[in-house]
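Hi support team,

I'm filing this because I wasn't sure whether my run with flavin-adenine dinucleotide finished correctly. The job status page said complete, but I'd like someone to confirm that the output block is well-formed before I use it downstream. Pasting the exact inputs I used:
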Amino acid sequence: MPWLRRSGDVFLIVLIFLPLLVALPRLGGPGGPPGEWLTWVGQVSGILALAMMLLAGAVSCRVPGFDRYFGGLTRLWRIHHWLGFASFILVMIHALALGLAAVPASLDAAVATLFPPLSHGALWLGWLAWAAMVIFLAPTFDFFGQPHYQRWKHLHLVSAAALLLGLWHALLLAGEAWPWWLLGIAGLGAIAWRKGVAPQRRHAYRVEEVVPLARGVVELVLRPEHQGIRHVTGQFVYLTPLDQTLSAGRGEEHPYTIASAPSDGRLRIGIKDLGDASHALQTVTPGTRALIEGPYGEFFERRFPERDMLWLGGGIGITPFVGGARDLATGAVMEGRIHLFYLASDAVRAYYQEELVDIAERVEGFTFTQHYSREKGVMTEAYLRQYCPDFTEREIYICGPPGMNHHLNRLLLDQGIPASRIHSEVFDFL
Ligand SMILES: Cc1cc2nc3c(=O)[nH]c(=O)nc-3n(C[C@H](O)[C@H](O)[C@H](O)COP(=O)(O)OP(=O)(O)OC[C@H]3O[C@@H](n4cnc5c(N)ncnc54)[C@H](O)[C@@H]3O)c2cc1C
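And here is everything the job wrote out:
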């Protein structure tokens, strides 16, 4: 339902501007001498900055199902990042404009506005909030290189301090308290949910089987200990292994796509060795426990029954399509025809190929083609057209490494296919 996908955006925009709308009768409009005008800019940017910061916290709550109002968790994380970044820029404008507003009076007045005596606690709370923001945002600046994910996540806890200090600053200085209480509860409540409530609500599973697929790739088969999750194809979960013998990643949550059919009582998850935690998972032992949180995402939710589908999966990015194919194999109703291309370097790395060939032979309307880059080079328009002549007319779903996604998106857009018909998932959203 497209309206549902975007309804979260509308709600969010209303909330971003709510404190400003409430404050506008007090602030009045911009105008007058530069000093007054800059004060107005400083106040407006400060109000928007805090609203965005609190909402960045609110959208990080990760309640299963909540992400669907925003077009999936991947998109919601992008919104979270965007809000955090925009808030940081606005905080800088806030301080700069208020300082500059006092310059016409004197330079000393400008310095005193920004750095008053320590007895002006409300203002110093604002500076402390800014410092907390710098601490948790700095590692994300390209200048420092790729952040270590787990360390960066722990550092993110400082964001709770930034939210709290910013909120305190506003409650002491702003005239209107209720919008700040509302957004404050949303932002801090979301963090409390993530850290306190969500871990208690994870589903307990037991590793039933570990199927080696290729070098550095296994498929875990997990059975729920009590009630399992319900999912639709293309969704993913956060998996927290509890196997005591793991060399890394024990008790750490990582996102993985569900490669089993929704009707299967067990979860199947294909895991490629891409770092320390996923490397350790290659040796997980059957019988050990794992916690599952989710499901999240809506990769295949954007379905258009009037058009056939083209699925392009590369590397471990084949997993959402394996889930989709397994669903078809269990007799799921197919809306139109589906053509799956499996992009791999060679037959050995096309670890799900045998099963996919078998499903294609059994399910009418589902076609499977492999593409080996060692033999054929990169995927071309001619190769797609040779096996799927009407590919430009289809609804297209892509999942694979970032380089492959980029190449395929470019190739398809160059064929005149509108971007709205190309849906991509990248296994690297943070
Ligand atoms: C929506 C989604 C679905 C995915 N599905 C699969 C799948 O089906 N099979 C599979 O093998 N891999 C999948 N991945 C990738 C998998 O999550 C990473 O390979 C794994 O988290 C790497 O952790 P690591 O400690 O082994 O490696 P690291 O070296 O720590 O990380 C490697 C990269 O993975 C990312 N990453 C690490 N930890 C996390 C985390 N907790 N949350 C988000 N990103 C993280 C980082 O951006 C980092 O650049 C998926 C990722 C996403 C976002």
